[in-house]
Design brief:
By secondary structure, the chain is mostly helical. It has 12 helices and 4 strands. A two-stranded antiparallel ribbon has the order 1-2. Strand 1 (39-41) and strand 2 (47-49) form a beta hairpin. The relative contact order is 0.15.
Length: 269
């Protein structure tokens, strides 16, 4: 297991897609910085920035964990990483034994989890850096909004569940790789799932069933969709910590078990 994991970590840091997220985050923050630096003319003829102050909070630091951005780039990375295992004879060298083949999907999930935490740290550091730049160079007043004590437990629980949801998402992508070995499918699925487009398709299907068959009229579908709950936040009426945890388990555990079972039986070419 350790041998497989070391090899996968070495492959991960050499996968170009791993570095796309921090580059995108920097460009995103530059665009936001320039937008907020735009000045407007007041009634007295003076010019001032659109925003004179910048509100900063813990939910703001971790916002990329709930809005799908980290999930999107994690999925794109895993799709590229998993499908590069046949390069340089890696698959034949590592998967020569059945035991090693069983470890391969587990190793990919661990790499996905490590990438997830790396992306979280990168998002916080880049966000904090650009906020500091706004204070230092744009002359904006920084306003730190602390979470009320009553919200801290709920917020931390929400963050932990978002991380679990991302790991479950990674497990499903590893399973799809073991079954299909398709980079295109992995990337398309990652885009559709993380951007909640699949959720929107389900909402459309629900509306069709309501209008045509008169069923599912009283069902709030958003309460049972992981990405929708995560994007709505921990204060949304759609969010439930118990439901979010259960849905993540339903996605993650069967995906992990099935990925290991498929990897044990597959032929290595």
């Amino acid at each position: 297991m350790i041998r497989v994991l070391k090899t996968d970590i070495f492959r991960a840091v050499r996968t170009k897609m791993f570095y796309v997220f921090p580059i995108f985050m920097v460009l995103f923050q530059v665009a936001e910085f320039l937008l907020q630096a735009v000045k407007i003319e007041t009634e007295t003829g003076e010019t001032r920035p659109i925003l004179n102050e910048f509100i900063f909070s813990a939910p703001d630091l971790f916002s990329r964990l709930g809005d799908g951005m980290i999930m999107l780039f994690l999925g794109l990375f895993l799709a590229a990483f998993c499908n590069d295992e046949s390069k340089n004879g890696f698959c034949k060298n590592v998967a020569g034994r059945v035991a090693d083949r069983a470890y391969m999907p587990v190793s990919k999930m661990i790499v996905g989890t490590l990438a997830l935490f790396a992306y979280i740290v990168e998002a916080i550091v880049i966000r904090t850096g650009f906020v500091a730049m706004q204070f230092a160079f744009a002359g904006k007043k920084l306003v730190w909004t602390a979470l009320p004590d009553a919200d801290k437990k709920g917020f931390i629980t929400f963050l932990v569940l978002c991380i679990i949801g991302h790991i479950a998402f990674a497990a499903f992508l590893v399973l799809s790789h073991e079954l299909l070995h398709s980079r295109a499918f992995g990337m398309v699925f990652a885009f559709l799932f993380s951007t909640a487009m699949l959720d929107q398709l389900l909402f459309m299907l629900q509306e069709i069933l309501k209008s045509q068959l008169g069923i599912l009229k009283d069902v709030e579908l958003g309460k049972y969709l992981m990405v929708t709950m995560m994007s709505e936040g921990w204060k949304s009426p759609l969010y439930s910590s118990g439901r979010l945890f259960l849905i993540a388990m339903i996605i993650g555990i069967p995906s992990a078990v099935a990925a290991i079972a498929v990897a044990r039986k597959k032929d290595v070419s």
